[in-house]
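Record 1 of the preview.
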Amino acid sequence: MASPLTHKSGDALPTYEPVDLDNMTRPQALDAVLADIRAHQVDAGPDGFFTALRHIDLLGHLALRFTADAHHTLAGDSEATNAAQAAQASGQAAATVGRALTHYTQALLALTKVSAPDNQASFSAKLESVPHHTALRRHLHAAHQALDEARTALAGATPQGRGHITAPVARRPAASAFPRGHGL
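->
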């Protein structure tokens, strides 16, 4: 079993399995999964597919654990100072990890397309694979963002919604920005 301080033999980077997360706190488990995901990037090919499946396994385990923690907290099975707040944080973290899991599963279609052996056969095939590479990176990036939101949720802060954009305060442009004498 791996831990934050040890690694599997022959592996220079941390590699976790779901069972390794069971004895960690929620933030430690999430950080371990984030470290694993960042250390083992998903790339085109069979190795990337295997890595994506490992990440999906870890994310599924986290989502289940965070959901169960919320349930047990509300049921009074755990000693939380503020049970409602702790359950809310676990539930929010479970939801955002679930969103990351969704993005990983959506990335599988693009990963399948870019990993096909005939995909690299010709220049035309390489050009046709560009949108799939883009989709793969887009879904993986969205998964990473969701995991960062899960970290925020576990810290007790309320993450901003995906559609919430803070608009900058508009300032009047400098006077020199307006041309003079050109009929404007």
